[in-house]
Amino acid sequence: MSTEIADIQDLDGVGPVTAGKLHEAGFDSVESLAIAPIKELVEKANLEHSTALKISRAARQTIHTDFVTAKQLWERRQTLQRLSFGSNNLNKLLGGGLETQAITEFVGEFGAGKSQICMRLSVNAQQLNKDGGLEGRVLFIDTEGTFSAQRVHQMAQSLQLDPEKVLDGIIYSRAYNSDHQILTVDHSFKICKEENVKLMVVDSILSHFRGEYIGRESLAERQQRLNSHLHKLLRIAQALNLAVVITNQVQANPQAFFGDPMRPAGGNILAHASTHRVMLKKASGGIRIAKIIDSPYLPESENYFQITEKGVEDATPRNKRDD
Ligand code: GTP
Ligand code: MG
Asked: Which residue of 20, 86, 187, 194 has the fewest CB atoms within a 10 Å radius of its CB?
């Protein structure tokens, strides 16, 4: 993607007033305009439909997003990077590490290790490519207030890294409700680009939505807002070649006669938006099981890890040990 035109004011149809409205709504760059749905430009920046359409076209033409050849798709895929979990078992499960240009969702009951994985990935993302990192910063959106700077400090120290440098590389945002969470992501394109963010975490994606939209009658609206939120995350991941991790809880599945009685919350919208879904479960002896439950190309397999001082590490269950 070419980024020669940096200022949105250089686009046809964007005067200072429109530019102001767009900036306020979180559209800070030509790329962010090119990937935004028209409806969003109309609603969030309060533009006329015809103006929004014109601006969107101009933005897409500027950075040539309309048509790509399969070869270009292939080339884009070659730029995909992988972030190490710090556990070979988890790396193997995810096909070599956490992918950029995708959303990876960790689902599991309380205490399954979702937040611990997010924190460890936030440490790893800052490391050199040769050490399994992405050589970039982290944007951590915390919706439950469970991010712990002390814990990250401890992980960094146990890994013989400079804890203060690691903490400095994590841009933290506490989201207090779903509107705030959506707004934070809407405004994140610029900061991700300027600060070389290579990993974005939303821990957890649904808690506010679940708490605020109660009852059948509000479900459609909830799902619609969630859908747009998730697509924004995916577009940022693809436009900036960064990795997105979201966490989610499980809910009872009353229709399950066979198999697992628990399923990820969030319904089809979340199922479709996540590129890879990984279910985490607590097993005996502090061992945890990670299982791929939905992915376009990763095989349905599982592997073991444990939570330690360093964050996450490989584990071997007793019945699989050689000794
Ligand atoms: P919810 O957010 O409640 O849904 O759970 P979660 O899946 O995010 O769980 P989380 O990642 O917070 O995991 C919590 C578990 O991690 C605890 O039950 C502890 O077993 C473990 N844990 C947390 N901190 C430490 C630590 O400093 N050292 C070790 N060894 N384990 C820890
Ligand atoms: Mg958590």
From this structure: 194
**Domain ranges for the chain:** 8-63, 77-320
Contact 176, 97 (CB under 8 A): no
Residues with CB under 5 A from ligand 2 (ion): 114-115, 146
> 4-9: long-range contacts at Cβ-Cβ below 8 A with a sequence spacing of 24 or more?
5/30, 5/62, 5/63, 6/30, 8/33, 8/59
Q: What is the pTM of this model?
A: 0.88
Q: Is the CB of 111 under 6 A from ligand 1?
A: yes
Could you tell me which CATH number the domain at 8-63 has?
Answer: 1.10.150.20
Q: Tens digit of pLDDT for each residue in 124-167?
A: 999 999 999 999 999 999 999 999 999 999 999 999 999 999 99
Q: Is 311 in the pocket of ligand 1 (CB under 6 A)?
A: no
- Domain 77-320: give its CATH code: 3.40.50.300
